[in-house]
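RNA polymerase sigma factor, pasting as requested.
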Amino acid sequence: MTTLEFSYSLNKLSKSLKPFALKLTRDSDDANDLMQDTVVKAFSNKDKFTEGTNLKAWLYTIMKNTFITNYQKMVRRGTFIDTTDNLHYINSGSNMIENEAYSNFTMEDINYTLDQLEDVYKTPFLMHFKGYKYHEIAKDLTIPIGTVKNRIHIARKILKDELNIYKTKS
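Structure tokens follow.
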């Protein structure tokens, strides 16, 4: 495969790598960086590509390995090593002190939001949360099982919307 053919194939396939990069990094800028690193590595190692094999799979492998390597570098950068005779990690879990203030605020917000729910949604939701099965809730509340599922779904949606401040980056 000539350099021109390889470059054309690489350019054509690089668009299909973007969703995979986004899935790995969960950030658009990091995904673009990963894409760029992958294309540079692929082009600089084009002599290692065996013609007739799957170029797309080869690119996916390069991207995955690049992501893993970058992640490992980032973790190593964040780890401080004590160089005394004991040689232990300063930021190991046994030396961390947890402050429960954040989780207390979170629970207060969750309980407040639950209290604001109408009883028709709150009761089935809390029963399901406590471990009751749908059919048990339907029997106890004398409502159809579909209604139980719908009310639990609505309660979850309301909680999700009201507590969106706690949504994690994804």
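Note for the archive: The chain is about 70% helix and 0% strand.
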